[in-house]
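Reagents: none. Just compute today. Major facilitator superfamily (MFS) profile domain-containing protein.
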Amino acid sequence: MKTFHKVLINTMIANITTGFLFFALVFWIYLETHDAALTGIVSGVYMGLIALSSIFFGTVVDHNRKKSVMVFSSIITLLFYVLSAVVWVLWMDTSQLSTSYVPLWFFMSFIIIGSIVEHMRNIALSTVVTLLVPEAERDKANGLVGAVQGVGFLVTSVIAGSAIGFLGMEATMWICVGLSLVALIHLLPIKIAEPEIISHDDAQAAVQAATTAEDGEVAVPNPASDLSIVSKGIDLKGSMKIILSVPGLLALVLFASFNNLIGGVYSALMDPYGLELFSPQVWGLMLGLSSLGFVIGGGLISKTGLGKNPVRTLLLVNVGVSFVGMFFAIREWWWLYVLGIFIFMVITPAAEAAEQTILQRVVPFRQQGRVFGLAMAVEMAANPLSTVVVAIIADAYLIPWMQGAGANSIWGTILGEGNARGMALMFFISGVIMLVVVLLAFMSRSYRKLSEHYATSSQDIAEAASTT
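Predicted 3D structure written out:
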């Protein structure tokens, strides 16, 4: 557990650094160019590349030692941040910034690539929990991961804007280069004991041998080197095969993806709704304060765990999320909105920890990277898509309708009066849809199968290592 805590702290430093620099970049671009389209492109490209690269990252994690993956990720992130600094020093002229200014695109691209590669560490961290934490304590460990992620979100959302406002982009960039170097130096002496890595070629040889062996057991030699990174490309077929081999696991991934589709409603409308209730300064403060819920929720899970059946816990959390979505904007009361966001952030770490804990038990350790990577890719791809669709529908139809004829309908009675009733209607509908889907999931065969498989599975690598 001491090693796990060291790895967790190291990942927190890396996450804060990359999140800090990326958000600072977005703020700086808009303040310098006042080009909303450019900032939207940067954010969209960032989210899209994370989704596209996650499957590849998962394959890399599976075919290499986790320490090697983390070191490799840290080195690549540091390298690209240094390249961005070189562009700034040798090429950038801030008086010429525009969408046609080539150095700006190189500068942005290097920062985006460095920040995206860091996500490889997050996939590796999920497998490290399986490796280092005893099975009975994994739900609490995943809660601790959620608390750390909450700290990262809180810190980056608060300091990014302040850094750009008070220090400027150049100083912010050099701070992040320094923090990336600190994260790498801190990581190097950490030792992660890991069993043999079964490479892709060795696994294929084992399958061929198993077809001829009477007992089906094969000893696989030639583990991957701890000093090099083996890349086997995007193993989408292998990832899907693993997921399909576990009863009910595909339904879990699709359920998480559906949640992110619904989550697009909040991604698209939370800030506009908040700005209807508060000034920009006060809204930023409210959002920062409510994000403390992530830290509190993760801390609670790290103390109490998730219960005997994390699958059930995951669905119950989503029942809570659906009720929050239905009622936190039922009236234009600022305190109700902030309270709803806070409750949402408190219970969200339980859902994240439950999903992680389930995968860490039911998916074989040497295949977890690909499953975590595919799950991240599907979930990340769903949210930007629905965000765009929701924003268009709300702006073109629901908001004008609720300001006109809709105000005199049954929805006007339910949601009351105000300038943002169209957005409130979107929140309410999304909450109802989520509640219906969760209740159907409770009655599904996939829920029963996955719950039974979780209860009868065991994968305690940490415990086995401590007894040998």
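Residues 368-403 form the longest helix (36 residues).
Action item: order primers for follow-up constructs.
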